[in-house]
C-alpha cells in the first residue's frame, strides 16, 4: 500500500439504488473479498444494518487497482443520518452517485448530491440496474441533466452504466477512479494534515481513529498533536482496512486508514479534529457541522436494578455514535433512565435496536418528543427536551413557546397530489409552493414544498405518506428554525397519581383527541380495584378527558365448589406466583402489569 497514488471516494445514493451491492462488486474485483458469494453487503457490518438494509456507521476500506489505492468510505443512505454522510464525505475527493436506472432520481439522490457539491467533490454518476427490463437509462440521464449534471459522453460528469448485480460496467467505474487519483507529489512536501472522521473503542487496541490524510506523510512513531486540544500523542500503530485491518506503518496524502495513539479516553479522538505533526503549525482542516438533536426519547431498563448496566451500554454506544446526546432522568413509575437526543426517528430506532442486539439490554423507550423552546420575558431561552421540563405555570405573556419546524419537499406522481395535500394539512402543514415537473423524462411529477412542525413529522407521518401514496411519495426535510406555537403539556392521572411517563407536550389543537384516546387505552389496561378508579387527562388543572373504572372485588376462589381447602390454597398460591412473575408498575394504590403499561406507552 505504501507510496501508491491514492484517491478517496464515497458511494452516495437513494436507499435501495444499489450502493452496497456496488461496493461488494468493487471489493470483489479488487480482490478484497472472494468473488461469487452473492450479495454480501460487506460494509454493512452491524446486524441492525443488515436487517434493515441500511448503512448507519461509516466505514472505510482500501482497495488496490492498477497501482492505485482506492479508499472507499461508506456513507449511510437515510435522511436521518445526513450528519454521518457529511462527515464521511469530508474525507473524500470523489463521489459515485448511484441512481437506479429504473426508478430514476429520487429525493435522497438530490439531498446527497447537494451535500457532495457543498464539499466540492468530483461527481461520477453511475446508472445502476441496467440489467432490469424496466431500466430507462436515457430517461434517467435526462433527469440528471435536469438537476444540473453534465452527464453526456465526454461531459465533465459523464455517466457510467452498470449492473452492480452482474458486474457489467463496474470495471469502467474502477478505471475512472484510477484516472482521478493524484500522485500527491506536492502534497507530500507539505506539512502533514489528517482529518479524524470516525473513532471507536476497541477492547484490545484501545482508542482507534479513522483518519484521512490530506497532505504529507504520517508514520508509526511520529509525535502528533490534536489541533482541537493541543494535546500530543505518539502514533503507536497505523494502517489501512482491506477489509481487515492491515498494519502499514505509514499513511500518505490521499490515503485513509486507522491509527492508534496513546489516547486514554474516547473523547480525545474527537471527530472532525485535525491531526498534525507536533513540531508544525497548521491551519485546521474544515470539519463539518456538529449535529443537533431533533428528536428526544427516554430509555428505561425493564427492571430498575439494571440501570447501571443500561447506562454503561448507552455510554459505550454513544461513543460509537457521536450524534447521540445523553442525559439522566428519572420517572416515578419507571425509576432511573436516560434521556437521549437523536437526529431523527429512524436514528432512534436503530439505536434502540443496537442496545438490544449488541448489548443485550431489555429496555422501554418513551414516545419521541422534539426540542421545544421557551423564551422568558427577560429574553433568556431554554430548550425543553422532556415534558417534565415544561414550565408548570405558564400565564399568557410570561413566556413564549416555540416549536421546531422543517421545510419539507414532497415528491409524488400527479395522481396522489390530493391525498398528499390532505395529509400535510392534517399535520398542520403550511404550503409554500407546488410545481408540476415535466422534466425531460416526460413523467408528470409533483413537487410540493411545505413548512411543517417537526413534532408532526416524527410521529407516524412517514407511514401515512407511504401508505396513502402506495409507496410512491418521497419526502425529505431540512431544519427551518423555530416558530411560535400554542403548546400545552398533557398529563395523565390514575386515581390522582400522575403517570409521568405518559405526559406529552403538544399543540393545543391536538390535545383533546390525544387525551381521550390515551385515557381510553389506559382504562383498558388498569385492573379493576376494590374502589373506583378515575383516569384523567389534564392540562394544568383542567380535566379534558375522563374515564372511570367501576369497583370490583375479584375472588379467585369463586369458581370452586365445596370446601376442598388444599385446592383453594393451591389456587391462592398460584395467584401469588403469577404476581411475582408479572412485574407491575404502581400508581398510588393502583398497580398495572408492566406488560400492559408498556403496550400503552408504545401505542403512541
Ligand atoms: P442500497 O440501499 O443502496 O445499499 O442498495 P442495495 O445494494 O442493498 O440494493 C438494493 C436492492 O437492489 C437489493 O435487493 C439488490 O440485490 C438490488 N440490486 C442492486 N444492484 C442491482 C443491479 O444492478 N441489478 C438488479 N437487478 N438488482 C440490483
Ligand atoms: Mg446498503
Total number of β-strand segments? 32
Gap between N and C termini: 53 Å
| Structural class label | alpha+beta
Q: Uncertain regions: pLDDT < 50 for 5+ in a row?
A: 558-565, 575-581
Rounded to an integer in angstroms, the radius of gyration calculated over CA atoms is 28 Å
The average pLDDT is 83
Shape: globular
Instruction: Name every ligand kind in the structure.
Output: guanosine-5'-diphosphate, magnesium ion
Strand content: 25-35%
Order of neighbouring strands in the sheet with most strands = 2-3-1-4-5-6
The number of helical elements comes to 14
Main sheet specs? 6 strands, mixed
Assembly type of the chains comes to single chain
Q: What fraction, in percent, of the residue positions are helical? A: 25-40%
Catalytic activity: GTP + H2O = GDP + phosphate + H(+)
Keywords: GTP-binding, Hydrolase, Membrane, Mitochondrion, Mitochondrion inner membrane, Nucleotide-binding, Protein biosynthesis
Subcellular location: Mitochondrion inner membrane
Membrane topology: Peripheral membrane protein
Could you please describe the fold and organization of this structure?
With 604 residues, the chain is of the alpha+beta class. Helix content is 27%, strand content 34%. The protein contains 14 helices and 32 strands. Helix 8 crosses helix 9 (345-359). The two termini are 53 Å apart. Residues 13, 15-21, 39, 53, 77, 128-129, 131-132, 163-165 line the site of guanosine-5'-diphosphate. This is Putative GUF1-GTP-binding protein. One of its GO terms (molecular function) is GTPase activity.
